[in-house]
């Protein structure tokens, strides 16, 4: 009595990327009807992408953007997590900081770009700061929500066994907020990349955003499309290659309770 | 004396829950506190475990306390062996030593082949055995039990109470609270009845030292005798229906 999932041929052939293939097909058709300056065909963009990747100088740009994104993301997520934990643990702090988080979330990233350039000047610090400050409030709100929703019976159990603050944090509290923080972090990684590209485009001399700005000045739409495709591919790669596997590993225990079809009971 | 409480009063907000409780649990004995839900049992237990400060009275307890609750309260994100070793981790025992001792204890409790399972993969009885292993591993001087086996079937319950008797060191004091007289009568050396608002001890009934858990029929006999006492009936709000009780007849 093993309940096998039904065989879906389309799914099996394309690995679930039917949506992307359909979008590319629509793009191809639209490109035939339009001026290639406005919408270059997918083949031209792919060829341009290949030649971009063949140039080692472009890898430096990619590395610069990745570094800003990841540094800003990690700093923002770390600060957000710490704020959320502090706020979730203290009602007074919660009342104090809650309106501030709302304000922080309402702040347009572009406004942070202006402030960051004034404070830090043109450079890496401004980019990392802008990315981090965009990530902080969402992660803080998620961490707070996770802490509020925690199982207090486990807190009591840990207290009875005399658990110290570090054991309570690492063994009891943090694992419970993963469920809330992970979706926020996955969303915010994409935001981090967007913000990094934005500040590069506006103010910096290197990185994918700066390359995109050059393509705009040259009215080189195939190159612009290639850079955009590269940004999307990077976000997708970080999401599927890093964050989702990490999340799945942290939440392995959840899947353990669900009997798998065909697996041992 | 492993746990001694004298003149304990405790309150939640303005409502006084405990109205002067004297209770002693010498090392090596099992004392069961019974009463209906909301009678103050859990409050008494929290005071005994040092989680709640009494408003009056004195508590003298051992510093190495372990606890088993009605639900196992395992960490779902830790494997069985690490859950069993949680108490040792709190005591600062290193990972290798912790896992070694936890594995040995789990093997004695019949869980030797699920060391690396997640709690969600175990049955209710197995999870409660992991919780027992976690408590035994810290070699407690005072073990506090909050209706630990009331969700289990009679066979499992008997098995776990037998483990409790065999695995505990001979000088460990056990304080158990439960609303289930049969559970109390299976293993306790003394049964204490809690009743009233605020709660006081209305009856302390010695049963004598049980080296092994009493068989279910024996425990139920003790329970039946206790229910015949008006203080016990009152503690479970059964005075009103006492007159209506008709002896059961065997059905055809």
Give a quick precis of the structure.
By secondary structure, chain A is mainly α. Chain A has helices at residues 9-14, 18-33, 42-54, 56-89, 91-106, 109-120, 124-148, 152-160, 165-203, 208-217, 221-250, 252-256.
Outline the structure in words.
The complex is a heterodimer of chains A (265) and B (252). With 265 residues, chain A is mostly helical. In chain A, 81% of the residues lie in helices and 0% in strands. Chain A contains twelve helices and no strands. Chain A has helices at residues 9-14, 18-33, 42-54, 56-89, 91-106, 109-120, 124-148, 152-160, 165-203, 208-217, 221-250, 252-256. Chain A is globular, with a radius of gyration of 23 Å. The mean pLDDT of chain A is 87. Chain B has two domains: 1-64 and 142-252, P-loop containing nucleotide triphosphate hydrolases (Rossmann fold), CATH 3.40.50; 73-139. In chain B, the strands form two sheets. A six-stranded mixed beta sheet of chain B has the order 5-6-7-3-8-9, sandwiched between helices. Chain B has a three-stranded antiparallel beta sheet with strand order 2-1-4. In chain B, helix 4 packs across helix 5. The longest helix of chain B is centred in the middle third of the chain and has 14 residues, at 95-108. The termini of chain B are far apart. Chain A binds chain B through residues 153-154, 156-164, 167, 171-172, 175, 250-254, 256-257, and chain B through 49, 51, 65-67, 69, 71, 73, 75-78, 86-87, 89-91, 117-121, 134, 138, 144.
